[in-house]
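Entry:
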Amino acid sequence: MIFEFNSNIVLLSYGVAFTGIYVAVSAAEQFRGIFLKYRNPTFIQKLPWLTLNGIGVGIVAFWGMHSIAMSGITLRDDTGKIVPIQFNIGISMFAILIGFLGQVTGILIACGDRFYAKSKAEILEYFVQSRSMEEILSYSESYVTFLLISKELTYSAIGGIVACAGLIGVHFLGMAALEFPGYITYNGGIICAALLIGLVSAVFAYWLFFRLLSIFPNVELIRIAVPFAGGLAVCGVQYIAIVGTNFHIDYSQSTQSSWKTYSMKQEDILYPVLLAAMVTLWAIAMIIFTDLREKINAYRAYLQKLSPDEKISDLLLKSENFFDGQETSNYQGGKKNALKNGKIAPNDDESVL
């Protein structure tokens, strides 16, 4: 038995995974905003953005990508005849649930990351608390950045692992949902390689979002890197695992399971799944844009109540960069906090503060 992939479908499936994760990143940033606003938000306050993220990644990127990918596979028997494939809807629905729960659980774990729910000022304050100012000023900017992005990554790593477990569940449940005259076996070595690639990519994507983007929220490249890495995780598990899958054709076996009434033909699955994915992502994007517009309008109303001097001060505060790129003033924010906490004494050199 041989199988073939439609290269256009491969690219399309990656595009769906990338777009789903990219939109979900925007929802997750709104989720982070809940923590910054309320500090200890209730589950009800977190639920809307958590749900949208679970839909964008767990359903659209995980399951949607898998379904689109499987719509592009062609099975042939030893005579070259195309083998018909159907998808068990009941098992597919269960796969959707597993993908959603895996991503939601991963997010809930990873949001415990040390810096995820902190502002830039709080991140700097945490950094200087356990160090003397002399020690801090002896560090180069690159070393400080390294310390901030590499320490205490347990939560984001575990969150990425859990999300990847959801992805793996979606894939193998999706394979179990295949109905064709025959059965499936797996090549253990190739499957392990697929799982390892997916796991590393998922943890990397979680690190990018929960740590790197929390520290550098104005770097758009990171927002692109997150869905790029996440897309590699999804497609890595999908396509490498398929290479390690052996389809054995046996026409003596029933093409369908006992769920016969609830199956969908392979040729009927691509367009409904693609349409559902696009509509879902559009709806999530509209919710995000609406929320952002409300925040912008609220901020404009807030500015209208301020005096001209207060407006300038407020705008400067909000536009402050994490690092200003100059060695002599890398740690002005840290110095301010250190002065406030009595870690160093004010002197004539601190007049710039």
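Residues 121-151+306-345 form one domain.
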